[in-house]
Amino acid sequence: MTEGVHKMKFFAWSLFGLYMAGLLYITTLAWNYGASLGPDGPGGRNYNLIPFRSIYRIGVFSPTFWDPLKMLIGNVILFVPLGVYLPMLFRSLRTIVKVTLAGAALSLLIELYQFTFTLRVADIDDLLLNVGGVSIGAVIYFFFKNRVVIDPPPAFSPWRHSDSTSGNSRRR
Hints:
The chain is mostly helical. The protein has one domain (3-144). The protein is 60% helix and 6% strand. It contains 5 helices and 4 strands. The protein has helices at 3-29, 53-61, 66-89, 96-117, 124-144; strands at residues 37-38, 41-42, 46-48, 121-123. A hairpin with a 2-residue loop joins strand 1 and strand 2. The protein is elongated, with a radius of gyration of 20 Å. The two termini are 22 Å apart. Keywords: Membrane, Transmembrane, Transmembrane helix.
Protein backbone atom coordinates (compact mmCIF):
# COMPACT_ATOMS: atom_id res chain seq x y z
CA MET A 1 0.00 0.00 0.00
CA THR A 2 1.36 3.37 -0.92
CA GLU A 3 1.96 6.08 1.65
CA GLY A 4 -0.65 8.34 0.01
CA VAL A 5 -3.37 5.69 0.21
CA HIS A 6 -2.49 5.02 3.85
CA LYS A 7 -2.74 8.73 4.70
CA MET A 8 -6.05 9.06 2.84
CA LYS A 9 -7.48 6.06 4.68
CA PHE A 10 -6.29 7.42 8.03
CA PHE A 11 -7.84 10.79 7.20
CA ALA A 12 -11.18 9.15 6.25
CA TRP A 13 -11.24 7.11 9.49
CA SER A 14 -10.41 10.24 11.50
CA LEU A 15 -13.24 12.19 9.89
CA PHE A 16 -15.59 9.26 10.50
CA GLY A 17 -14.61 9.21 14.18
CA LEU A 18 -15.25 12.94 14.51
CA TYR A 19 -18.57 12.59 12.70
CA MET A 20 -19.67 9.71 14.98
CA ALA A 21 -18.68 11.67 18.10
CA GLY A 22 -20.71 14.65 16.86
CA LEU A 23 -23.67 12.45 15.89
CA LEU A 24 -23.76 10.75 19.28
CA TYR A 25 -23.37 14.06 21.10
CA ILE A 26 -26.23 15.68 19.17
CA THR A 27 -28.57 12.70 19.45
CA THR A 28 -27.88 11.61 23.02
CA LEU A 29 -26.39 14.45 25.07
CA ALA A 30 -27.29 17.84 23.62
CA TRP A 31 -30.60 19.28 24.77
CA ASN A 32 -33.03 19.91 21.96
CA TYR A 33 -36.00 22.20 21.69
CA GLY A 34 -38.27 19.33 20.69
CA ALA A 35 -37.87 17.72 24.10
CA SER A 36 -40.62 15.65 25.58
CA LEU A 37 -43.76 17.27 26.86
CA GLY A 38 -45.11 14.16 28.51
CA PRO A 39 -47.75 13.84 31.24
CA ASP A 40 -45.33 15.24 33.84
CA GLY A 41 -44.64 18.39 31.83
CA PRO A 42 -41.34 19.17 30.12
CA GLY A 43 -38.87 16.35 30.42
CA GLY A 44 -41.28 13.44 30.88
CA ARG A 45 -40.45 10.19 29.07
CA ASN A 46 -42.35 10.07 25.80
CA TYR A 47 -42.45 8.24 22.48
CA ASN A 48 -44.28 8.19 19.16
CA LEU A 49 -44.84 4.96 17.25
CA ILE A 50 -47.30 6.34 14.69
CA PRO A 51 -45.52 7.19 11.42
CA PHE A 52 -45.76 10.83 10.28
CA ARG A 53 -47.68 11.89 13.40
CA SER A 54 -45.00 14.18 14.81
CA ILE A 55 -44.14 15.50 11.33
CA TYR A 56 -47.79 16.49 10.93
CA ARG A 57 -47.98 18.04 14.39
CA ILE A 58 -44.74 19.98 13.92
CA GLY A 59 -46.00 21.31 10.61
CA VAL A 60 -49.46 22.26 11.85
CA PHE A 61 -48.77 23.57 15.34
CA SER A 62 -45.42 25.35 14.93
CA PRO A 63 -45.71 29.14 15.14
CA THR A 64 -43.29 29.70 12.26
CA PHE A 65 -42.65 28.05 8.91
CA TRP A 66 -38.88 27.73 9.44
CA ASP A 67 -38.78 25.88 12.80
CA PRO A 68 -40.35 22.62 11.53
CA LEU A 69 -38.38 22.88 8.31
CA LYS A 70 -35.09 23.14 10.24
CA MET A 71 -36.01 20.18 12.46
CA LEU A 72 -37.12 17.94 9.60
CA ILE A 73 -34.24 18.76 7.26
CA GLY A 74 -31.81 18.56 10.19
CA ASN A 75 -32.82 14.96 10.89
CA VAL A 76 -32.14 14.04 7.26
CA ILE A 77 -28.87 15.99 6.87
CA LEU A 78 -27.48 14.65 10.15
CA PHE A 79 -27.37 11.12 8.72
CA VAL A 80 -26.22 11.84 5.14
CA PRO A 81 -22.50 11.56 6.07
CA LEU A 82 -23.14 8.12 7.58
CA GLY A 83 -24.44 6.95 4.20
CA VAL A 84 -21.17 8.10 2.63
CA TYR A 85 -18.76 6.81 5.29
CA LEU A 86 -20.21 3.30 5.73
CA PRO A 87 -19.57 1.99 2.20
CA MET A 88 -16.32 3.94 1.97
CA LEU A 89 -14.83 2.36 5.09
CA PHE A 90 -16.55 -1.03 5.38
CA ARG A 91 -16.27 -3.45 2.47
CA SER A 92 -19.20 -5.51 3.75
CA LEU A 93 -21.48 -2.49 3.31
CA ARG A 94 -21.04 -1.89 -0.41
CA THR A 95 -24.72 -1.83 -1.46
CA ILE A 96 -27.34 0.85 -0.88
CA VAL A 97 -29.59 -1.69 0.86
CA LYS A 98 -26.87 -2.76 3.32
CA VAL A 99 -25.92 0.84 4.07
CA THR A 100 -29.57 1.77 4.61
CA LEU A 101 -30.14 -1.19 6.96
CA ALA A 102 -26.99 -0.38 8.96
CA GLY A 103 -28.08 3.26 9.24
CA ALA A 104 -31.58 2.18 10.29
CA ALA A 105 -30.08 -0.06 12.99
CA LEU A 106 -27.94 2.79 14.34
CA SER A 107 -30.87 5.20 14.29
CA LEU A 108 -33.05 2.65 16.10
CA LEU A 109 -30.37 2.19 18.76
CA ILE A 110 -30.21 5.97 19.21
CA GLU A 111 -34.00 6.23 19.56
CA LEU A 112 -34.05 3.38 22.10
CA TYR A 113 -31.24 5.08 24.02
CA GLN A 114 -33.13 8.38 23.99
CA PHE A 115 -36.25 6.73 25.39
CA THR A 116 -34.40 4.73 28.03
CA PHE A 117 -31.73 7.10 29.29
CA THR A 118 -32.60 10.67 28.31
CA LEU A 119 -35.56 13.01 28.59
CA ARG A 120 -36.08 13.16 24.85
CA VAL A 121 -38.79 11.78 22.60
CA ALA A 122 -38.19 8.44 20.90
CA ASP A 123 -39.94 8.96 17.58
CA ILE A 124 -40.58 6.73 14.58
CA ASP A 125 -40.55 9.86 12.41
CA ASP A 126 -36.96 10.57 13.46
CA LEU A 127 -36.08 7.02 12.45
CA LEU A 128 -37.73 7.47 9.03
CA LEU A 129 -36.02 10.82 8.40
CA ASN A 130 -32.64 9.46 9.54
CA VAL A 131 -32.97 6.45 7.21
CA GLY A 132 -33.80 8.86 4.41
CA GLY A 133 -30.59 10.74 5.16
CA VAL A 134 -28.49 7.56 5.18
CA SER A 135 -30.03 6.50 1.87
CA ILE A 136 -29.27 9.88 0.30
CA GLY A 137 -25.68 9.61 1.52
CA ALA A 138 -25.35 6.10 0.05
CA VAL A 139 -26.70 7.28 -3.31
CA ILE A 140 -24.20 10.16 -3.26
CA TYR A 141 -21.35 7.74 -2.47
CA PHE A 142 -22.25 5.26 -5.21
CA PHE A 143 -22.81 8.06 -7.74
CA PHE A 144 -19.32 9.48 -7.14
CA LYS A 145 -17.55 6.19 -6.37
CA ASN A 146 -16.37 5.57 -9.94
CA ARG A 147 -15.84 9.24 -10.67
CA VAL A 148 -13.48 9.98 -7.73
CA VAL A 149 -10.83 7.52 -6.55
CA ILE A 150 -11.36 6.92 -2.84
CA ASP A 151 -11.20 3.14 -2.56
CA PRO A 152 -8.03 1.45 -1.37
CA PRO A 153 -6.38 -1.24 -3.50
CA PRO A 154 -8.23 -4.61 -3.37
CA ALA A 155 -5.57 -6.21 -1.14
CA PHE A 156 -5.98 -3.54 1.58
CA SER A 157 -6.39 -4.75 5.13
CA PRO A 158 -6.19 -2.38 8.10
CA TRP A 159 -4.50 -5.09 10.18
CA ARG A 160 -1.68 -5.94 7.75
CA HIS A 161 1.38 -3.71 7.85
CA SER A 162 3.47 -5.19 5.03
CA ASP A 163 3.17 -4.51 1.32
CA SER A 164 2.89 -8.24 0.60
CA THR A 165 -0.37 -9.31 -1.05
CA SER A 166 0.00 -12.95 -0.04
CA GLY A 167 -0.33 -12.29 3.66
CA ASN A 168 2.86 -14.23 4.32
CA SER A 169 5.65 -11.76 5.04
CA ARG A 170 8.21 -14.38 6.14
CA ARG A 171 11.44 -14.37 4.20
CA ARG A 172 12.72 -17.66 2.87
